[in-house]
Structure formats: structure tokens, C-alpha cells
Amino acid sequence: MHMKKRRLFRIIAAVCLVLGILGLLFAVRAEKNAAPDETVRRLELDTGGKNRSLAYDEEKDLLIVGTHEGIVTAFRDGETVWQNAEAAGAHAALVLGASGETLYSGNEGMHIYGYRLADGEIFLDINVQRLVADIAVSPDESRIAVVTNTGQSKSNLLVYDAAGELLFNTAYKSTTLRQVAYSPDGASLLTGNKKGELRRVTEEGEELALYKTGYDILSLRDYDGQILCVCSDGSYHLLTEDFTCLRTVRINNDINASITGGAMDPATGTVFVGSEQGYLFANSAEDLPVYRETFSSRITDYLPVGDELWFTTITNGLYSLSVPAILHTEKGSSVWTVMRAASYALCGAGLVFLILGIEWLRKRVGRLLFRVWRNRMAYVFLLPTFVLLYFFAYRGIFVALTRAFTNWSKTNYHQADISFVGLDNFKTMLTDSYFRVGIKNLAILMVVNILKAVTVPLLIAWLIYNIKSDKSKFAHRFLFVFPIVIPGVINVMIWQKIYDPSTGLLNNLLGIMGMQSWQRVWLGDPKTALASIMFAGFPFVAALPMLIYYGALGNIGEEIIESALIDGAGRHKIFWKIQLPLIWPQVSLVVTLVFISTMQDYYTIYIMTAGGPGISTYVPALELYMNIAQFGKYGYASALGITLTLCTLAVLGLSRLLRKKEAE
To answer: How far apart are CA 396 and CA 68, in angstroms?
Structure first.
């Protein structure tokens, strides 16, 4: 009966696993095929510069693009209709006149330009004498509203008539205005500022209504009575004309992209938000994420046209995104998500039945689960420790392992800025003169530090061990160990003062002894700097190695020493022939600890010489620190850290292998 049950379980397991795997493959393939081939297409239009702003006249089928270089170009069916390059600065905003015959530009060259749509000729040129941030044109084209910035938190709201005469000038001394728009009836203005305040004001600047978003308003658009505000934190607010909030949500910006603005498709209510790094996010009318893609460079403007969103990037990229396509893809993907979940459940059930159907596997898993259940309280109490270890120890290691192959830096800090660069960081390391000099200095310091840790502390431990009086032993141990309570940084700073060329103990002592020719700028001379660092800590009685050696000598049985003495061996011979071989594991331990600490140590050199003079005392650990703390090259520093870690593990592994062979 049991055999039949196990056979049945195996059959069920096979069926579940096959169905689960096939379901996963089908879901992935179906989802891929469901995506349209041309969700996004690039419009091959040459604007002659870096694209900054867009406008579109539907009746004339005329697309107008303003560039960072002050060029305005009109296109129809991919062909250039006219181009005007007379402007002095970047076209921050393009606004079509309601008449269908004019185009207005807010130019960062401190001008407002009016262009005729027929031929691109300038018919209006207003010198506003300030940096233009945004413009708006009244529905009857009798007024032009301009927001300008003249300094930190100093802005003006200017209103001109159709002939360019200044009508109103409202100064704002405590905030920076970002956006301006006329209400559909032209009776009032909307302004957005850096404080996150959306205001409805008269043309004279009198406040009529206020809505606070909490964050810098980067984009402000009026869609037939619905006002969309996009803020710097990635949130958007959809309001009515009386500032009643209809929708407010923050996009899923888990990559910390720097938001630049956004737009809405009026037909579907889909909201689009762009970023400095070229990411475009889209949320449906239900405020669910439906799209995210990167276009490599800053998205500068957005233009809903029919069932498409046209948008442009700063690097001459102009794109058309099909809104129905991304909404269709999202609806289809929810079906495939359910199918994937069901497939995962089938695979899980298949594994369970497989365990039940194989006797030896069932017994092993059962014993494991029983042990875990029996010791469940131990695991519960250990869980916080493992969680803390992950966040404060292992998480940094995992980050370094992944970011070592990226351009992570203080300028590319957020995930949206970080890109994969392969082995470039490691190639840079191999060609870096700092790293090569550091490896040479590290090898010298490694040999010297190991010699210092093996010789003097071992000698002191042996001398104390051979003292007859227990009180004298205790007193000497205490005196040699007591300096360990002083932080290592203090010792380094003391030696820095000893090497001071004018007031330092060493040069003064040489002067008293009449050896002025020996006086040096010890830490400032490339010939003596590294040697001075190695000599620091004289007479090299490291407390920890000395205690390890002393404990090891004390663990050797007295009968062994007494037998050697009876046989006529002297103290020195006993040390070389008996004691040293018996404490060799402790010597290996000290060498290992010194090796690791020397690989990691940078503060000694940083305090005494900062790697100088020049790079004469540079070491890889110091280079790692400098790239993190001063240069901000985090990806390169991660590559350095991985290299040092691998070198350390390789040497330790080789050492362990050699000890194992010796033991055999």
C-alpha cells in the first residue's frame, strides 16, 4: 500500500512539475508576444541641436521643436517646413496661439519671441531682462504672462500686452517661480513655485486660491479644466479649477531618478513623469504603474497628440509612445502574472509530492524539519542576530560585489544614474600608477610587520615565561600589556610628533648628540617616509601577539621542559627544538592576523603622511579610502575592496593548504 502511495505521489509530482514549467514558459512567451512591436518609435527629425521644448498644431499637422541652442524648427510629415535660428538662448517653453497662426517662445536669453507659423518669421521680440522660466498666452492672445528668476529665491510674474508693453510686474522675494498657465477663460493665472505651492492669481498678482503639494512643482498643465502638477518627489496632483484634488499619488520611483516634469493623456487619464536620467514612468487612470523605460538622457518636454505621447530628450531624441499599447500590455500582463503565480504554485506542489514519493528524501527532509521544529525557539532568538548581521555586515559586501562593475560615484549615486561598465574598474586599477606603487609599498610593509610581530613579542613572551617569580611575571606582563588600553590613533599621532622636523624628539635628540647631518624631514622626504612609518612603534612590543605567545608557552607541559633540562639541553636549545615547534600554530595565527590587519590598515599612513610625499607611502587600502571619502568613486573603490579581499582569501587559503600538507 505504501509503495502504491509513493508511486501515486511521484506521478502527481511529475504532472505538477511539468504543468508548472510549461505554464511558466507559456506565460513568459505569451507576455512577450503580447507586447506590440512599436510601443515606442523614434521620430527621425534633425533639429540641429539639443531638443528642449515641443508644440504641435493639429490643423496644420505642424510639429515645432525648440532647442537648447536657440533654434526653432517646424516639421510636417518628417520634412522641415521652416527653421529660425535667431534666438539668443534655449527655448524653455513653446506655446501656440489660439488663432492658429502664431507661436510664442519663452527664451532663456531673456527674451519672449513671437513667430508666424506660416514661415517662422519673428513678429514679436520682448526683452524681459531676466531669465525666463515659463510663459503662458491668454486664449485671445491679448496677454502674455511670464515667470522669471533673477537670483536665489527671487522671481517676477510679468504680464505683457500683444504689442509687448509691460502691464503688470509682481515681485516674489521669498520663492522661485517655476510654471505659469492661463485659466481656460483667461480670467486668472496659475503659478507653481519651488515651495510646492500652486496659486491662482489675478494678472496683477493678487492671490485667489492656494493649494500646497509639499514639494517643488516642476510641471504645471491645464487640460480643459483639470490641472496637473508634477513635483520633484515624483508625486503628481490632479485638481479641478477650484483646487479640489481628484488624484494624488507618487510614482514607483524605486531607482531614485531625478524628476524633471510630466504630462497627462486627457483621453485615458494616463499620467507620464520623466526624469533627468531619461526614465519615463506612466501610471494609468487608476494610478497603477503601467510603463517604465529609459531613454538614456534627460526628458525635457511632453506633448499628448491623439492617442500618442510625443516627448523629447536633451540629446536630439524625439519619440512617439502609443498610449493604448502600454495600457493593453499592462492589462495583458496581469493575466500572465496570475498564470505565473499558478505555475509557481504547481511547481511548489510538485516538489512537495516529490519529497513524499521518494522514501530516502522524505526521511531526510522530515528529520531536518523535526530538528528545526524541536529547536524553534533557538532559531527565533537567533533571527534578530542574523538580521542585524545582514544589514550591518553582509549587505555591504553584497553591494560592493554588484557595484564594482558599475559607474557608481557621487555624481552617479542613485540607481537611475548607475550603469553597468563591466570590468572597466578593474582595468583602470591595473593601469593606475597609484595602485602599482601601493602594491609595492604594501609588500614591503607586510614583510616588515610580520617580522616585527614574530620576533620582539615572541622574545619578550619567552623572557617573561622564564622568570622564576610569579609576582615578577605578573608585573612584567602588566607593564607590557598596559599600553594596549591607549587607542592606536594616539600612538600614531605621538610618532608623528616624534618625527616633526622642528620640534620633534628625534631631530632634537640628534642635535644634542651633535649629529645634525642626520637630521631629516622624516615624513616629508620620499627616501625616508616609508622607513619612518615602518620604524614607528619601536621597540615593537605588540601586546596581543606577546599574550598569544605567552599563553602558548604556558600550555606546554612542565614535564617536557624538565625532561629536556635533565638531558642537558640549555634554555636556548629547548626554545628552538621544543617550544618553538609546539607553539608554531600560534605563530601562524599571529602571522595571519598581521597579514589581514596590514592589508586593511590605512589610518596609520593617512595620519602620518596621507600617502605622501607624492605617492611614496601609498597603499591600496588608503587608495580605497581616498576614492570613497574624497574622490567619490564608489564603484572603483568597490573593485579595489573586492581585489584586496580576494588577495587576502587566496593567501590565507594557500597558507591553510600548506599547513594541512605539513600535518599529513
So the answer is: 41
Please indicate, yes or no, whether residues 191 and 94 belong to a single structural domain of this protein: no
| Size of the chain, expressed as the number of residues it contains | 664
| CA–CA dist 154, 174 (Å, integer) | 6
* 531 in the same domain as 634: yes
User: Strand order of the sheet with strand 72-76?
Assistant: 51-57, 62-67, 72-76, 79-84
| Domain extent for 458 | 424-663
pTM above 0.85, yes or no: no
In the chain, the number of structural domains is 3
Instruction: Specify whether 200 is located in the same domain as 97.
Output: no
- 181 contacts 143 by C-beta, under 8 angstroms: no
Residues 530 and 631 placed together within one structural domain of the fold:
yes
Q: Are 229 and 237 in contact (CB under 8 A)?
A: yes
Task: State the DSSP H helix or E strand holding residue 310, giving kind and residue range, or none if neither.
Answer: strand 308-313
pLDDT tens column, 556-592: 878 888 888 887 888 888 888 888 888 888 998 899 9
Secondary structure (3-state) at 632: coil
Please check whether residues 457 and 591 belong to one and the same domain.
yes
Cβ-Cβ contacts under 8 Å for 435 (sequence gap 6 or more): 429, 620, 623, 640
Q: What is the pLDDT of residue 97?
A: 93
User: Which three cell numbers, joined as nine digits, stand for 17?
Assistant: 512539475
Domain assignment of residue 339, yes or no: no
Single out the residue in 61, 95, 126 at which a domain terminates: 126
Rounded to the nearest integer, the mean pLDDT of the chain is: 88
Q: According to the per-residue pLDDT averaged within each range, which of 12-26, 103-117, 282-296, 348-362 is highest? A: 103-117
The strand pairing partners of 171, in sequence order, are: 156
Same domain? For 140 and 98 the reply is no
* End-of-domain residue from the set 212, 230, 251: 212
Q: Does any domain span residue 566?
A: yes
Residue 99 belongs to domain with CATH number: 2.40.10.480
DSSP 420: B
50-70 mean pLDDT:
93
Q: Are 165 and 179 in contact (CB under 8 A)?
A: no
> Residue 329's pLDDT is what?
64
DSSP structure string for 482-537: GGGGS-HHHHHHHHHHHT-TTT-HHHHHHHHTT-GGG---TTT-TTTHHHHHHHTT
Model pLDDT, residue 260: 92
Residues 156 and 120 in one domain: no
